[in-house]
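RECORD TYPE: inverse folding
INPUT: structure tokens
STRUCTURE:
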């Protein structure tokens, strides 16, 4: 049956290799189980509900990738997108409209973006949009999200704190929590440098274990139980999202996931030898996985689902078919019952993971053509505006405005697609009409 479904021999692989690859992928991205619920909990969401939603949405989306596209790629709620959800979208809805439990409206916006994704996927418009948007904006927003996530980690660790005179300053490094966060950062960095699979996950667990005898972590009476998920299950407010007009927010969710998923698919596709004449076969089926996963995730109680670059770990272990993804999906389903363990993980233990993830996302800056001002300046403004304005949306908007303007007034207006000019006009209109 496995041969018939996944075509193992045709892809020059076997069951043992695929299972090993699936475990490797799971180990490298299992940190999501601890980091992601902590981030969404900052938006007022129930930790256990988010954990349940994360496990199920990951399993569903990854299974669709496995059976629909037969690729060894895993999906989960995206880092960066969850930061935008928790630290930009939800606070803005709450303060602007005075809505309690604003996260419900934000989930409604995610559901709508997922539905739009399905339409864009079936109509093949996603590929057309990706080809039209300049590389500088793609790279700038990815790097900006990396800095933003790292900033969240530094704050959670107490390494960086608020200062009225300089906005931010160095925190009290002598506090036990901050010292342990620094230890976690060092340990995680060493393990990553030594190519140890699951380094980020192990870093979180090591800091937590050290904190237990120090009295900084309370050990639960039992380690396994089914999490309470009613607080987030079907809690999304779709009418609310439509009523207050969150088109800008929906666009940001769409845009970031659009390029994040495609970039990951192409990158891993190149590494695994899946590309054919520069294109990924069955790409539309693969893209349907994150669209469906996003819809399911919003209904369960989690932010946008996207393809994970950590899938490269399984590919490196020899994973070539959807069987690898099935193994990863099963392991995430098993993790549904670990809510007591996840709840005992303190924020200073997950802070190093955020810093490390941010640093890994910065690898894309090498793609910026720094010697060409018309490319470098828009990319840099996009990148730096995200953390400094505390908004991914602002960084994205500024980049889209500056890029075509510099190109146009430097005599290179033909290098910019009509889509980018239209988006620039919409963003200018947005800044003129409201502040978000």
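DESIGNED SEQUENCE:
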């Amino acid at each position: 049956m496995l041969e018939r479904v996944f075509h193992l021999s045709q892809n020059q692989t076997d069951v043992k290799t695929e299972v090993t690859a699936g475990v490797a992928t799971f180990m490298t991205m299992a940190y999501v189980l601890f980091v992601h619920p902590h981030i969404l909990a900052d938006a007022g969401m129930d930790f256990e509900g988010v954990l349940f939603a994360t496990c199920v949405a990951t399993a569903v989306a990854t299974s669709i990738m496995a059976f629909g596209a037969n690729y060894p790629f895993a999906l989960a709620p995206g880092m960066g997108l969850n930061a935008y959800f928790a630290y930009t979208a939800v606070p803005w809805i709450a303060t602007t409209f005075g809505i309690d439990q604003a996260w419900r409206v934000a989930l409604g916006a995610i559901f709508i973006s997922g539905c739009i994704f399905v339409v864009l996927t079936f109509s093949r418009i996603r590929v057309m949009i990706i080809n039209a948007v300049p590389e500088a904006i793609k790279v700038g927003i990815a790097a900006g999200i990396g800095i933003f996530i790292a900033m969240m980690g530094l704050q959670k660790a107490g390494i960086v704190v608020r200062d009225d005179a300089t906005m931010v300053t160095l925190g009290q490094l002598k506090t036990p929590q901050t010292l342990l966060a620094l230890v976690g950062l060092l340990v995680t960095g060493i393990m990553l440098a030594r190519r140890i699979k699951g380094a980020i996950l192990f870093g979180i667990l090591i800091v937590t274990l050290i904190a237990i005898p120090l009295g900084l972590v309370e050990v639960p009476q039992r380690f396994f139980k089914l999490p309470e998920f009613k607080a987030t299950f079907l809690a999304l407010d779709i009418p609310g999202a439509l009523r207050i007009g969150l088109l800008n927010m929906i666009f940001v969710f769409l845009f970031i996931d659009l390029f994040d998923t495609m970039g990951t698919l192409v990158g891993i596709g190149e590494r695994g030898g899946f590309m054919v004449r520069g294109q990924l076969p069955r790409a539309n089926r693969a893209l349907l996985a994150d669209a469906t996963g996003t819809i399911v995730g919003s209904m369960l109680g989690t932010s946008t689902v996207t393809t994970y670059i950590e899938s490269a770990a399984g590919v490196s272990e020899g994973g070539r078919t959807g069987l690898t993804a099935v193994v990863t999906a099963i392991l995430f389903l098993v993790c549904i019952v670990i809510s007591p363990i996840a709840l005992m993980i303190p924020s200073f233990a997950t802070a190093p993971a955020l810093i490390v993830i941010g640093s890994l996302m910065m690898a894309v800056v090498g793609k910026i053509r720094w010697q060409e001002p018309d490319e470098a300046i828009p990319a840099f403004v996009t990148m730096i505006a995200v953390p400094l304005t505390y908004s991914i949306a602002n960084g994205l908007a500024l980049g889209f405005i500056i890029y075509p303007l510099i190109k146009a007034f430097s005599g290179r207006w033909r290098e910019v697609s009509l889509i980018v000019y239209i988006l620039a006009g919409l963003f200018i209109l947005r800044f003129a009409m409201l502040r978000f």
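NOTES: The two ends are 52 Å apart (CA to CA).
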